[in-house]
Amino acid sequence: MGIYRRGRIWYLRTKQGGREVRLAVGPSKRQAELALGKVKTEMVEGRFIEPVKGHKLTFGELAERYLREHSAVRKNEKGRRNDGYLVKQLLPVFGSLRLTAITPERVTGYIMEERTKGLKPATINRRLVLLKHAFVMAKLWGIIRHNVVAEVKQLPEHNRRLRYLQPEEFRRLVEALPNYLRPIVELAGHTGMRLGEILGLRWEAVDLAQRVVRLAQTKNGDLRVVPLNEVMVETLRALMRERARRAEVHPYVFVNPTTRDRWQDVGRAFESAVNRARLEDFTFHDLRHTAASWLVMSGVDLLTVASILGHKDIRMTQRYSHLAPGHRRQAVELLGQALQRPGQVGDVAQGGSPGVEGGG
User: Fold this and answer.
1) How many Å apart are CA 248 and CA 48, to the nearest integer?
2) C-alpha pair distances (Å), 286 with each of 51, 189, 307
């Protein structure tokens, strides 16, 4: 490892993974010596990124390619919009920086600065996830050799909400809704479907004979079959009859009567109805919590609830476990039965007969 001059330019030479790495520094020998010291430190700490063909690329240029070649190809419309929004938040800080200048320290400093502004951990984490995945793609595309941003850990999130409606509150909400919005909200409350899934629902996905909705475009990208109860079957049948009466051929279930296209957003109308129904701290996504909570409180097991909601990770569903009727009481009763007979815990647990001492 050392420096040398070729013509008027100083270079540094080192090895990484058994391969020789040469980097042009500039006309200053002192600058080359400082660069060599920095590279040595980064190698010891495992943070060295070997510049390859794209070593002059800025994050703004990488982000543009990421949106064009990853988001636009692999994500649905909502995913593309989300990625575009997150990139827009990151560009003022990282856009003009070369990828080699984006270090774990710099990213950590950005996180801390955003926290001091009052941003929630979940908001910062969404940005961090995109930043890190952009570097994953940069490595895949051969722009960088090492993804040092992967070292930065996400913030712990303590802002998860679990707000759900009581049946009487849900009825109040439905009564406060305009007619066009009622079936949309009812479908969310009775199935746990996301707003985007509902607004993007096509008639071809609705199977009233089998009493299911088949969702091909979900947040997780997997096909999900959502069962329909009798209330929702009748609601969708009524919409289908109205569609036939109007001789409509529109593919979407929920159509904006003004634009004659699918609904893009119902936020303002929903918020107004929430206020009229005198509900506090309630969002459309909380209808999904409402469906999950009442499924669990009705005795449906967590795996089934996870399947209905489309949770890939059962930990997402476990947040509702405390609502299961009497499960904790039953558990401690079983424990009491076992512990009131010293020496027979094993027998009771295995269904053994009282009075027969366990071995060992």
Assistant:
1) 61
2) 47, 9, 18
Joined tokens for residue 137: 């793609």
Do the Cβ atoms of 188 and 291 come closer than 8 Å? yes
Structural domains in the chain plus CATH codes: 2-44 (no CATH), 59-151 (1.10.150.130), 167-323 (1.10.443.10)
Task: Report the side by side order of strands in the sheet with 19-26.
Answer: 2-6, 9-16, 19-26
Q: Which strands sit side by side in the sheet containing 224-227, from one edge to the other?
A: 206-207, 212-215, 224-227
Strand 206-207 versus strand 19-26 pairing type: unpaired
User: What's the DSSP call for residue 75?
Assistant: S
- Considering just the CA atoms, what is the radius of gyration of the chain in Å? 29
Q: How many angstroms separate the CA atoms of 3 and 209, rounded?
A: 76
CB count within 10 Å of CB 207 equals 12
State how far the Cα of 290 lies from the Cα of 294, in Å rounded to an integer: 6
Instruction: Specify the amino acid at residue 331.
Output: A
pTM to 2 decimal places: 0.55
Lowest mean pLDDT among 7-16, 97-106, 187-196, 350-359: 350-359
- Which residues have CB under 8 Å from 264's CB, separation 6+? 199, 256
Q: Say if residue 346's pLDDT is above 70.
A: no
Tell me the C-alpha distance between 162 and 310, whole Å.
Answer: 17
